[in-house]
Amino acid sequence: MSNNSVQTVSASGEKLKLGLALCAVIAGVVGFYLLADKATSLVRVGVLVAGLIVAVVLTMTAELGRNFVGFAKETVRETKKVVWPTRKEAIQITAVVFGFVLIMAIFLWGTDKLLEVLLYDLILGWKK
After folding, report:
1. Residue range 30-40: mean pLDDT, rounded
2. Please, which residues have CB within 8 angstroms of residue 105's CB and are 6 or more apart in sequence?
3. pLDDT at res. 5
4. pTM
5. How far is the C-alpha of 65 from the C-alpha of 22, rounded, in Å?
6. What is the distance of C-alpha 17 from the center of its chain?
7. What is the pLDDT of residue 93?
8. CB of 13 within 8 A of CB of 40?
9. Which residues neighbour 2 within 8 Å (Cβ) at sequence distance 6 or greater?
10. Do residues 51 and 29 make contact, with C-beta atoms less than 8 angstroms apart?
11. Residues 49, 28: contact at Cβ < 8 Å?
12. Which of 20, 80, 92 is nearest to 56 (CA)?
């Protein structure tokens, strides 16, 4: 039997930060539409962007935001390890895929026609 303590996924403070971030996004969007007749487009976009910036800052101070940034950094690090094919290799692989698709299409068309002839002409006797 294990004596490991169970940790909660997120504290109420973390939930509050994420809730405030959601409210900031909603406030930015609502402000953008409420100022449709009263302000210039620059002010409206400024209100929207300000709401989004506040939401991002609040999210980044929460554990969820820090975990997302860490995940994004790890993803970039992993993509740098990938060995990408050269242009010649990519063209060759694409040609093989197209060739296989063409051969498979012809095979399926031929099978369909063969079954059509067998079923309608020979078994059922329905001539077209």
Report:
1. 87
2. none
3. 59
4. 0.51
5. 13
6. 25
7. 97
8. no
9. none
10. yes
11. yes
12. 20
What's the CA angle centered on 46, arms 44 and 49, to 5 degrees? 115
Tell me the residue type at 91.
I
Report the largest interatomic distance among the alpha carbons of the chain, rounded to a whole angstrom.
78
Over its C-alpha atoms, the chain yields an Rg (Å, rounded) of 30
Say what the alpha-carbon torsion angle 19, 21, 26, 27 is, to the nearest 10 degrees: 110
Q: How many helices (H) and strands (E) does the chain have?
A: 4, 0
Tell me how far apart the alpha carbons of residues 58 and 14 are, in angstroms, rounded to a whole number: 10
pLDDT at 81: 93
pLDDT at 73: 94
Q: Report the candidate in 103, 109, 72, 105 with the shortest Cα–Cα distance to residue 117.
A: 109
Per-residue pLDDT reduced to its tens digit, 41-94: 889 999 999 999 999 999 888 888 889 889 999 999 999 999 989 999 999 999
The whole-number pLDDT of residue 49 equals 94
Give burial (CB, 10 Å; 0-12/13-18/19+) of 119: exposed
- The answer to whether 45 and 32 have CB atoms below 8 angstroms apart is yes
